[in-house]
Amino acid sequence: MTRSHLTLFLFFTSIYLISIFFQPYPLSWILKLLPIMVLLHFSWKRASETKVPSHKLFIIGLVFSAFGDFFLGYDPVNWFVLGLGSFLVAHIFYILSLRPFLEKGEAIKRLPIVVLYCLYSVSMFSLICGGLGDLFIPVFVYMTVLLLMGITTLLSQKSNKWLIIGGVSFILSDSLIGLDKFYQPIPFESLFIMSTYYLAQFSLVKGLFVTNKTLKEK
């Protein structure tokens, strides 16, 4: 990642995280989107250089993430399902961008970690399911796709520490949202949620476009 992109990302992320303490304020969703716009610009430039099809798929996922940020930032109550749907589509494109996957023999070696991911997700869903109400099915579907995205960062041939950090951070960020919204309120929840969210998106971009820049597609 270029120094200018990294500097802008850290700057806008810091500004938004600080601004959380002054919410609500008009047009806060714009500040929320700025770090993602920086990542989108960098990703677009890299994809234009590499001409790798999976990079374009990732960018589509990042665009849907931006839509999710807008929906949840503009009206987190009435537009929650729209935000959830946007991030669900984003994760699907992230999964597609991480193909090809490991051969069966290599994937089996990582099975214990995959099991841990699954146990964590089941435990988390069991905590929040009682408070979901009409959102039971949408949240279940979303958490399933999120789990698959996290597992994909482990089982992709492109897997590296940054992609794994991105997957774990996304799962953690959304777990905090679920706990705060459907189980019990968490003090300073927005600060923790957005910190892990921005870490997740940054790590996925770094893992795919920087660490894997020499990886050839099959």
**Biggest sheet details:** none
Kindly name the structural category: mainly alpha
Q: Average pLDDT, to the nearest integer?
A: 94
Strand content: under 5%
Total strands:
0
Q: How many domains is the backbone divided into?
A: 1
Instruction: Identify the overall geometry.
Output: globular
Number of helices: 9
Rg calc: 17 Å
| Low-confidence parts | none
Description:
The chain has 218 residues and is an all-alpha fold. It has one domain. Helix content is 77%, strand content 0%. It contains nine helices and no strands. The protein has helices at residues 3-19, 28-50, 53-74, 80-97, 104-109, 111-128, 136-155, 161-182, 189-210. Helix 2 (28-50) packs parallel to helix 9, helix 4 (80-97) packs parallel to helix 7 and helix 8 (161-182) packs antiparallel against helix 9. The longest helix is centred in the N-terminal third of the chain and has 23 residues, at 28-50. The chain is globular. 34% of the residues are buried. The model has no long low-confidence stretch (mean pLDDT 94).
